[in-house]
Amino acid sequence: MATRRHFFYNKQGQRLAANLDLPESDSPHLFALYAHCFTCSKNLKSIVHISRVLTEMGIAVFRFDFTGLADSEGEFSSTTLSQQIDDVLAAARFLAENFVSASLLIGHSLGGSAMQAAAAQIPSARGLVLIATPDHPNHVGHLLADTRQQALEDGEAEVSIGGNRFKLKAEFFKDLDSHLPPSIEDPLQLLIVHSPQDEIVPIEHAFRLFSRTRTAKSLISLDGADHILSRTSDAIYAGQMIGRWAIHLMGG
Which domains does the chain carry? Predict the structure, then answer.
């Protein structure tokens, strides 16, 4: 795949970093917008593997860093899910204004929650892929219950995730609680990709998302995979399944 580096601006005027992965032919069938998981980045190995598979199938992928993470400006400690939803919309606008509007939306974990919430405001979208995504965004608050309690008492708290330390403010947790699970409306179709062995977001979340959705929907089990699809074969398989589903859906 050929990768081009880009920058765009969020609602607060901060510069966010992105990579646009293109098929070698440079003539993609469709464009996908990819939101990474909580505290991750656009360069998470599984995202790169999935993107490479998709470009081999003729799908361009625009993957970006949320505010305050990796190569994007801003303070992560001041971000919220609402901020991440705005980041998704800013990325979608950049794609539409400079390339082609995104018809495929992909989100991983809390990035899936942000993508799901933003989808209704991206009219070009026809397919939504949720990878290891909770059925309600406040699942993150439950996972970080001790951090949440300290942040609500002291205004902010520090947490270690994946060997890195992050500060989270009380507003982050309050904002999570304020969001209701968004509905998925026609003509958007849904693909859920989830592992039965996911210890961060159990498979029951996928079942609840599936049962709650009233549009056309599919669910793919990634047996043996962990939450971030750290095993290369799992990421490649996920990419193949996502690509085949998207091409079947959109006739690419």
Answer: 2-137+185-250 (3.40.50.1820), 138-178 (no CATH)
